[in-house]
Specification:
Blueprint: E1 5-9, E2 28-32, E3 34-37, E4 40-43, E5 47-49, E6 63-70, E7 76-82, E8 86-90, E9 93-96, E10 100-107, E11 110-112, E12 118-122, E13 133-139, E14 157-158, E15 160-163, E16 166-170, E17 179-182, E18 185-191, E19 200-201, E20 225-226, E21 231-236, E22 239-244, E23 250-252, E24 263-264, E25 274-277, E26 284-290, E27 297-304, E28 322-325, E29 332-338, E30 341-346, E31 350-357, E32 361-368, E33 379-382, E34 385-390, E35 393-397, E36 403-404, H1 410-416, E37 426-430, E38 435-440, E39 450-455, E40 460-465, E41 470-472, E42 481-485, E43 489-494, E44 507-511, E45 514-515, E46 523-529, E47 532-533, E48 544-551, E49 562-569, E50 576-582, E51 584-591, E52 599-600, E53 603-609
Antiparallel strand pairs: 1-53, 2-44, 3-4, 5-43, 6-7, 7-8, 8-9, 10-18, 11-12, 11-17, 12-16, 13-14, 13-18, 15-16, 19-20, 21-22, 22-23, 23-24, 25-26, 26-27, 27-28, 29-30, 30-31, 31-32, 33-34, 34-35, 35-36, 37-38, 38-39, 39-40, 41-42, 42-43, 44-51, 45-51, 46-50, 46-53, 47-52, 48-49, 48-51
Length: 613
């Protein structure tokens, strides 16, 4: 009689999709919401709305930028830039600080229809487009017996344009009766125009604007896209500076209060790709902006204001304002502060911008070529190194030459990536777990729906799905903050408890194929010995499921695989008795319950030779 034998499944950390499931024996092949810590897989932490679990408030637009900072008195603010608004979160409350484009004043410019929420506003040459936002500040007489229209929804009323002299909004409730040209003396404001939530194709010679998003002196063609809106945000002392791509610079003064909107810095460059503040001497720097002499937009041009003076941008012998034109590329994509310098990415190269003092203020060095970034937010610094997503590779810069990261999921990620939406890629750091995470849109999705994680201490990779459009690491806040788009924006604390804002958070991991008895003969597996704890090493809360699949040959069609399970495992499950045969096997660990936190130890299997060869 042949005695059964036990073997332990101790698999290598990290997901590997560069090899086939069989060639990757001894490792992991697929996962979702799982990380590797000390070489073992575990479910990632959960998330909860920063306003409290399952809070219903939805912010207007899709968030592309988040910036937390602390005022001198210790008050923490979080700026949020969406494609339609500039918002502020403070003390558990959201505030709308979106700049205004223009004001509206008129008499009897409002019309209503009985039993309809539609309200028509007559404004000659309003210049609005459908999707812009408008709000009233005063209406002297009632219209259609509606409650006051001055109490607009958070963010204002979305506009639906009728013609160049009128537009429609929707009141919270229906009008009682029809009223034509009412409201008396009325005043209101248009917010700055709403930007694109998605990158949209431009077709035909001359589509778009010359020298715009497609690069200096390059006419738009069918391969170009109308870019989505993102904001570059930075703190200027305890205040906020903000600019959306292609727009001017705005300033929010903390001392004015949360009910005051950001205002235009009128003397600053009128069109900017990115802005940030230099760390040592507080120069506000504009990247990809009009040149100082002709005011013509140049996507490779850099300007900075005088130190500590946001309004002085004209270089002279008595100030530190200045400019620089980069070369060797088409356009600047983004910039970030780093150790001892500011890093500037173009579509092809990486530059270093260092403080050198008078008379030049800043010096520039080309650090690398053929290492441009795929998007304005595709880079993040962690552990003194800068990581970014380039074309068909991931890069790191640690003071020497930029180098390529070895990646075991490279073809998987770039094969799924939607190249029409590269500007949506968002990189974040999760310093508590030594991770870099890139959120990206997959082909066929309308928004970011996937992520790839790099653990820079273990040099391992993991993959998964999640809708997150922006991310900022813990620091001023106790947890990372990320934005999700669910018909509007919600902000979440991450690594917070075990669930998805009070709902179950599904997680799974699947192994690569492994041989049974070196694949020589058919074997029978008749017992599994599970080994699980929670993420902290304590007793497993809730349950996990184990599914075992066996194959006769590595290329056995999925329909011919033999499946056993799922078997539910709790903290007190000592063994699973079953019987299945094959030459090769793989297994899946999955958790779908509320309050489940799991970490895998070392699963044991018992096998014995089968009679069939």
């Amino acid at each position: 009689m042949i005695s059964p034998s036990l073997f332990v499944s101790n698999l290598r950390a990290g997901i590997n999709r560069e090899l086939t499931r069989y060639a990757g024996e001894g490792g992991w092949y697929d996962a979702d919401k799982v990380r590797f810590r000390y070489g073992k897989p575990e479910k990632i932490g959960g998330w909860e709305n920063i306003q409290g679990a399952q809070d219903s408030q939805v912010l207007p637009g899709v968030t592309r930028s988040i910036l937390p900072w602390s005022a001198l008195d210790g008050t923490i603010y979080v700026a949020v830039g969406t494609n339609s608004h500039l918002l502020l979160w403070n003390g558990g409350t959201y505030y709308d600080i979106t700049p205004v484009r223009s004001s509206v004043s008129g008499t009897n410019i409002i019309s209503t229809s009985a039993d309809s929420t539609r309200v028509v506003v007559s404004v000659p040459n309003h210049d609005a487009v459908t999707g812009d936002y408008f709000y009233f500040t005063s209406i002297t007489t009632s219209v259609g017996d509606l409650p006051t229209l001055v109490s607009a929804p958070f963010g204002g009323y979305p506009v639906s344009v009728i013609d160049q002299n009128s537009f429609a909004i929707h009141a919270p409730v229906s009008a009682v009766f029809t009223s034509i040209s009412g409201g008396g003396a009325t005043r209101g404001y248009f917010l700055i125009p709403t930007g694109n939530a998605n990158s949209s194709p431009l077709f035909g010679w001359g589509a778009g604007f010359w020298g715009g998003s497609q690069g200096w002196g390059t006419p738009a063609s069918a391969s170009n896209v109308l870019p989505l809106r993102y904001w570059s945000l930075d703190n200027y002392g305890e205040d906020l500076v903000a600019s959306y791509r292609g727009g001017p610079i705005y300033y929010w003064d903390k001392s004015s209060g949360t009910n005051v909107r950001a205002a235009l810095v009128s003397t600053s460059p009128s069109q900017n790709t990115w802005i940030l503040v230099s760390p040592e001497d507080r120069h506000l720097i504009a990247f990809g902006c009009p040149d100082a002499i002709t005011s013509a937009y140049n996507p490779l041009y850099i300007r900075w204001c005088t130190s500590e003076n946001l309004t002085d941008w004209n270089a002279s012998a008595t100030n530190t304002a200045g400019d620089k034109l980069l070369s060797g590329a088409n356009k600047i994509i983004s910039a970030r502060r780093s150790r001892g310098q500011i890093l500037v990415w173009t579509d092809d190269n990486l530059y270093g911008m260092q403080t050198v003092g008078p008379p030049f203020t800043f010096g520039f060095t080309q650090i690398g070529t053929n290492c441009g970034t795929l998007g304005p937010n595709a880079m993040v610094e962690a552990g003194g190194r800068m990581y970014w997503m380039a074309d068909e590779r991931f890069m790191v810069y640690d003071g020497g030459a930029p180098r390529i990261l070895g990646c075991q999921v490279l073809r998987y990620v770039f094969g799924r990536l939607d190249r029409n939406q590269l500007d949506k890629i968002y990189a974040g750091s999760n310093s508590a777990y030594n991770e870099i995470i890139w959120f990206y849109p997959s082909q066929g999705s309308s928004e970011i729906d996937s992520y790839v994680i790099y653990d820079y201490l273990q040099e391992t990779w993991s993959i998964g799905t999640m809708v997150r459009t922006a991310w900022v690491d813990e620091g001023l806040n106790d947890y990372p903050i990320a934005s999700s788009y669910e018909g509007g924006t919600k902000l979440y604390y991450h690594e917070f408890n075990d669930d998805a804002d009070g709902l179950p958070m599904d997680s799974f991991i699947e192994s690569s194929l492994f041989d049974l008895d070196a694949g020589q003969e058919l074997m029978v597996i008749d017992r599994i010995g599970p080994d699980f704890s929670d993420r902290n090493g304590d007793s497993l809360p809730g349950t996990v499921d184990i599914t075992l699949k066996t194959l006769k040959y590595p290329n056995t069609p999925p329909a011919q695989e033999i499946t056993k399970g799922p078997f539910t495992v709790s903290a007190y499950t000592q063994k699973i008795d079953m019987r299945v045969r094959g030459r090769h096997a793989y297994y899946r660990i999955e958790a779908t319950g509320l309050g489940t936190s799991w970490r895998l130890g070392a699963i044991r299997f018992r096998q014995v030779k089968d009679g069939e060869r």
